[in-house]
Write a structure and sequence with these properties.
It contains 21 helices and eight strands. By secondary structure, it is α+β, with helices and mostly antiparallel strands. It folds into three domains: 162 residues, 2-Layer Sandwich (BirA Bifunctional Protein, domain 2); 88 residues, no CATH class; 247 residues, no CATH class. The strands form two sheets. The chain has a five-stranded antiparallel beta sheet with strand order 1-3-5-4-2, with helices on both faces. The chain has a three-stranded antiparallel beta sheet with strand order 6-7-8. Strand 4 and strand 5 form a beta hairpin. Helix 1 runs antiparallel to helix 2, helix 14 runs antiparallel to helix 15 and helix 14 crosses helix 20. The termini are far apart.
């Protein structure tokens, strides 16, 4: 059950018009009162003689009783309380009791002989109610509604337990501000998938990903088509910024601007600057194992560097101190944003959903010490500046490799948040992992299918040799791997590694020893990508076929390979 307290409004009648409207909103059915401050308020939904104006005037009486100069400009308090989709349908009586508990807990109508505000709870759908109140008590004072949103959440957790409803993970105040009901309905009217606030948050996060300076950040915002206003001190120093969608207008036809801090706590300009000002304490020179021989540019090379950075980051999140782990987790969110922004169409949606879900997991009360996360931030920058990736060939295969490594990094993030008691962040990371798994299946199908066919075509003696290597190196996992369809792809990879001069058994031992495999749906698939990354083998094997003896990759010129391929095709048709 999720209560969502909105910013105070100024027109009681305007809010009631929305709550009782049915023709404009498909989900508004049978609007009616389920509770009110006196239990006798007029209900325009059930009483044909009652009007919305009657109810508004009744709620506004304590406000209007004050001298005009003493009336609060924003006097309308509003919260929605929504049940989880998996919950049973609650009765009007149950919703009424929930409303009474929420207004008491928030200080709107505390009870116990204390003066309270006037309020009414309207139900216009099976799964939620709206509570509207006016912020002047019966004796003419302001209610004690400080941190009413937090207090409503705490009461909701108790209600869930008592009514046997799904228990929502408690928050810690680091979540991004939820869109208001007015913003949600405005998005519905405009046919938007997400509210303007949510679209802006995603766009700003993507602009931050890969940027290394304020100038580059604002260039990315402008390139994304956002309207930008900067706030400067008299000295000319930049203090902040706010953004708007060009087509999101208020009733006066003006763009609706949102400051970065209202989009998410880590999108204020000072917090963004922290990402650029952190000084890495380690040697900035890339290590030899992180240098990919496929060249410095291109989407495939960027994805391989991302896979390497993610691989190293898992160890930090698992064993580093909290501030360092928090920095790597925050940087992981940037990597996901960049990967979603630059990936091919068949993986883009799931990667976008993964990045959207992980946004909540990237923040907690553990303050990140930026700078040590240089490798992940550089990977993000590489992804952004390498441009869009194709969904095939080396681009597509290295996308699968990067997603696979990121899956294990996010799994480590789930465990880290769970150990810290960060329930909402752990749940968000789990959702991100599910989207990543789906994206991986789409990205890996073609390259793993090719490897599978190559493994099936290896000579019997060569497959037996790779089976012996597997049993020697991984005796506890060997039978499980041999039973997986992906074993053939792994056998082909072991053959490629051996032909490239590596010891397959040593590679296997290292790949298994450094990271867990319990969360892997297919151990052989995971080992394929770990080995191909560690041995610097091509991720895509379209042009990498066994030679005529079936012992390894064919390194002959393309013309010779085409000749061999034609001969094999001829033999297959005989």
């Amino acid at each position: 059950m999720i209560p969502s307290v909105n910013n105070p409004g100024s027109r009681t009648i305007g809010l009631l018009n929305y709550l009782y409207a049915t023709s404009q909103y498909e989900d508004h059915t049978d609007p009616h009162l389920v509770a009110s401050f006196d239990g006798m308020s007029p209900d325009p939904g059930r009483d044909p003689n009652a009007t919305l104006q009657d109810l508004a005037q009744l709620l506004d009486q304590p406000v209007m009783a004050l001298a005009e100069h003493a009336r609060p400009a924003k006097h309308v308090w509003h919260t929605s309380v929504r049940a989880d989709p998996a919950d049973r349908t609650l009765s009007d009586e149950e919703w009424g009791e929930i409303a009474r508990r929420i207004v008491a807990a928030t200080g709107i109508d505390p009870g116990g002989g204390q003066s309270g505000c006037r309020w009414a709870a309207v139900r216009h759908a099976d799964d939620h109610i709206h509570i509207v109140a006016t912020l002047v008590t019966e004796d003419g004072h302001r209610p004690d509604d400080y941190r009413s949103g937090t207090r409503a959440q705490a009461e909701a957790r108790l209600i869930e337990k008592e009514l046997g409803l799904r228990q929502v993970a408690p928050g810690d105040g680091t979540a991004a501000q939820r869109p208001t009901s007015a913003e949600r309905h405005k998005a519905e009217r405009q046919g938007r998938e997400r509210t303007a606030r949510e679209e802006l948050r995603e766009t700003v996060r993507r602009a931050v990903a890969g940027a290394s300076s304020e100038e580059e950040f604002f260039e990315q915002l402008a390139a994304a088509g956002l309207l930008i206003r900067q706030r400067a001190a008299p000295s000319g120093d930049l203090l902040g910024y706010k953004v708007a969608l060009p087509d999101d207008l208020n009733r006066d036809g003006e763009p609706v601007f949102y400051p970065g801090a209202r989009l998410a706590p880590d999108l204020s300009l000072p917090r963004i600057r922290e990402r650029w000002s952190g000084k890495a304490q380690d040697d900035p020179t890339p290590r030899q194992e992180d240098v990919v021989r496929t060249g410095p540019g291109g989407a495939a090379a960027a994805r391989r560097r991302t896979a390497s950075a993610a691989w190293q980051a898992v160890l930090v999140v698992e064993h580093g101190d909290d501030a360092l782990a928090a920095a790597y987790i925050a940087a992981t969110g940037e990597v996901l944003d960049a990967l979603a922004k630059t990936s091919a169409a068949h993986t883009r949606r799931e990667l976008r959903e993964a990045a959207w879900a992980f946004e909540r997991a990237s923040r907690s009360h553990v303050r990140a010490v930026r700078g040590h996360d240089r490798a992940l931030r550089q990977a993000t920058r590489d992804l952004v500046h390498s441009g869009p990736a194709l969904g095939r060939g080396e681009d597509g295969a290295t996308t699968a490799m990067a997603i696979d490594m990121l899956f294990f990094l996010i799994t480590a993030t789930i465990h880290w948040h769970a150990r810290k008691g960060h329930a909402q962040q752990a749940e968000a990371a789990r959702r991100a992992a599910e989207h990543l798994r789906t994206a991986y299946e789409a990205a890996a199908a073609q390259p793993l299918g090719l490897l599978y066919q190559r493994g099936r075509s290896l000579s019997r003696s060569l497959r037996q040799r790779q089976t012996a290597v597997l049993r020697e190196a991984l005796p506890e996992l060997a039978e499980r791997i041999l039973a997986e369809p992906g074993w053939y792809a792994l056998a082909a990879t072991l053959t490629d590694a051996e032909s490239a001069g590596h010891d397959p058994a040593a590679l296997l031992t290292e790949a298994v020893g450094q990271r867990e495999l319990d969360s892997a749906a297919s151990v052989s698939d995971v080992l394929v990508w770990r080995l191909r990354r560690a041995a610097d083998l091509p991720a895509d094997t379209t042009t990498t076929v066994p030679d005529d003896n079936g012992t390894g990759p064919d390194t002959r010129p393309a013309q010779a390979r085409r000749g061999s391929h034609s001969r094999r095709q001829g033999l297959q048709t005989l």
